[in-house]
Amino acid sequence: MTQGQDNRLVNQRQLAEIFGVTRETIRKWADLGMPTRGGERKARLYLPSEVIKWREERAERAAIESVAITDIEEAKRRKLAAEAALAELELAKARDEVAEIELMGAEVGKAFARCRARLLGIGAAVVPRLQLAVDGVEMKRIVDDEVHLALGELSNGALELASGADEADQEDDLPADGGDAGAASRPDAE
Fold this sequence. Notes:
Helix content is about 65%, strand content about 0%. By secondary structure, it is mostly helical.
């Protein structure tokens, strides 16, 4: 449309041609609130620039509403998913299938600390027995036994999350000097 045609009123047929739609579509637009000029339904006239503005505003409103509806639906979907995940977590907690990260970290830290203490105490634990060993094979067995005991701190029930084991009970397993707590109970110990 040229600048000179902006203020020229058109009838229904002409407006339909301008927009490339049917006359029925123009009637529906008028029923939806498209601005009109003039008299009765059949004699209505239209200012194309007003119709263009009305259609742009209507498209803008529809786009905004569509986005809002999508956002609301997405928020509802995410809320339902979060509620389902929380319910599953609560069920897993009730079944003792999960543990808190802080508790796990503390228990793993204690197990490593016991293993470290046992490894640091190997020297004091094996020196007296190594002096009595008759050959290198027996010396290796003595050292290997102590290393295996130390590593057992990591694998033999060191993580007692659900058993209710007291922290002090677990620390009583190690001698105060970091030495060999089980030396007296082994047949080769003197």
